[in-house]
Batch of 2 targets.
Target 1
Amino acid sequence: VEHGTKFKRSWHRLTEYTGGFMNEKCSHDLDLMCWFKEHEARPIGVMSLGHRGFAQHSVNETSCAHCSRLDCLYRDDVSSYAKTVNGKVYSDETSKGIGQCIYGNDSDIVDNQSVLVHFSDGSHGNFNVIAMSGKHGRDIMIHCEYGLISGTLESGYLELLNYRTKEHLKVNFTGMNMHGGGDTQVIKEFIDCLTHHTPPISTVADGLRASLLAFAADESRIKQTYIPFNYDEH
């Protein structure tokens, strides 16, 4: 929950700085969804619902530092993420939300959203985000014709179940530090590109597609309608 409140503060809080919560926080998940379907199908449409369901009512406070409610679960500790110069916290145009009361800030982003991505082979992917969940993390379930793949980022493993043979397999992963090992892998691939001219698994075109899907999802959410998606990376 504490992690979710940070997206309602600092530069995360305004769509004009991030392109929206779906783009800033969840484009990675949409990118993964497309990667799972790579060479099989492409996204051709999006439907989405979402809104701001948490802290909608002001409590007439503007700053955690000046608030008398010391037991508030959402009291802000700016020391962990505020911008600093020579050890001193400072505020610029993008970081004015730092330290704001979660019930009285100027955030305009949603905090929960569901996205249904329609693929060209008739399959679909369903992504749900709850910023203010009482349990942080990422869960995944891939329903296939003959089996199921499931897991959580924090567990460090995936489970595979074969419907026909009833075989159950657990695959463990290593190097789960820093965003589930993602940060380490990104830096490794970048260095490999520079030193060995090895092309990265994920391209700029992939990243652009993920952001465009996020924008389409927000358009669908706002207009409450199905949004066709046509992306040609070439």
Target 2
Amino acid sequence: MLAETTFWTFFWSALWFFFLLVWLMILFHIIIDLFRDKETSGVAKVVWVIFLLVLPFLAVFVYLVVRGQGMAERARQEQVAQKQQFDSYVQGVAGADPSDQIAKAKSLLDAGTISQAEFDQLKAKALS
């Protein structure tokens, strides 16, 4: 069987497999975008999914023409939201360093803004 396999049969098989993967990626992007959209009703989502299952090629092209611009905008909004969430997480973790908190409290103590007792409380809280 391996002797019957030529370069061209392998090439065409690989090419078909590549296009199958591209097609599946497009379908998954459309389905993800469809369920990411908060403005579309549940009934409309069901109709789109049925349309994608019954006439997939036509449904993909219609979806990209009708909702393509909104698809890009929703993806951008999702990226912005994820970046903001990540940035706030990093800031929260970075600000939780005990040595930074103690150094800030020490500078407040040296400036006379807080008392020694308040500094001790902040130091104990940072170390716990």
